[in-house]
Amino acid sequence: MNFDNKFLGLDSWTRRRFMQLSAAAAITSSLGDLALAAPAESASMIDVPFEKRNPRLALIGTGGRGTNLLENLLAADAQVVALCDVVQEKADHASSLVVAAGQKKPDLYTDGPHAFETMLGRQDIDLVIIATPWNWHAEMAIFAMKHGKDAAVEVPAVTTIEDCWKIVKTSEETRKHCMMLENCCYGYNETLILRMVHAGKLGDLLYGEGAYLHDLREELFSNAGEGLWRRTEHTKRDGNLYPTHGLGPVANYMGIQRGDRFGHIVSMSTPQRGLDAYRKEHLKPDDPRMAEKYVTGDMNTSLIKTANGLTITVKHAVSTPHPYDRINLIAGTKGIFEDYPPRIYLDGQNADEAWESIDKWKEYEHPLWKREGEIAKKLGGHGGMDYILLYRLLQCVREGLPPDMDVYDAAAWSSVSPLSVASVAHGSAPMEFPDFTRGKWRDRKISAIATQL
Fold first, then answer.
1. Residues facing 108 on adjacent strands
2. pLDDT tens string 400-429
3. Largest CB tally within 10 Å, which of 3, 246, 279, 309?
């Protein structure tokens, strides 16, 4: 099976070299030992606090997602000084929101796709929010850090292993943070269950499951918004293109990068059928999109084994009819939780082995949801998790705290996508995860989300 090595960022890796390896070597060592070596080590960014200040923000990308983030940021009293987008009308609309919130009109940068470089050359920007198509994330985050700004990037943070290492290296060298805006880690259920896990209610953890199961066919074929670029990703790679919404919360439950880490992954995909069927039914025969060739399987299923022996199933399906579902399952020796709908079963809970609601466990409701839950729900944004995420980000900067999710999380969680592509391309062979912390995961504590007061 052909495999374009650019998706791993391995320009020197050739199919000929791979075929020279024995089958056993391919299964046990995979690409990791040969091509994913870490760059020279710099001082770690683990537990490094933000510089304490009320941050001045710039936003790159003022489309649908960027505007939603901006509305939540303004509700959290964020100071917005500059906006950037390639579409003038979108930037103008975002600017009007800032003015309506009582702030000075932000400066706009709309002169082409690299206008962000001019914007980030300013000295009065502390934190950059990046809400652009995936292929721009790494370049923009790296540019921001090299110009003295902390970067907060939409998901996935990056799409190649090479870029995973680049954001880690740049963060360490510049001493600037690069975090991923994984809102699902701040959902009501996710934060409550995380604190139950931390309290030992589920016992010793054994396995988890996360997913992104969402019928995006109409959006993918839209002539606006994400339809302008996201469908193209389905012509390039076969694997899990969007792993972090389901994976992030499970990684937090398990203490990934904090006492455990991802070890290796095996991945497989079904055939691609959904997008072909949808366009046949909805597009005209002469539509240029009828000539596109889609390669992403309609369902990708990946299995991760952690260094401590736990297992995580990660699924991705956006091209077929399916109710929205992230699964959000975590299980241990004393019980199991699964979402959609939220339900829990603990050892000895009842005689008929029936699930129960999590409502009786309100004592583990996260303090952020107790204090900010009402405004979060009013703002919307995926049930309020968007506001909680951004409120907490601003809190960490304003109080000079380390970020809850750092560059090592961004790299590890994002790496699932290119490694799943590599595994699928090589007959579901195991692929080793790079250790982005270079061994320091062994000494880290549980996510601050679990212990935050």
1. 83
2. 999 999 999 999 999 999 999 999 999 999
3. 246
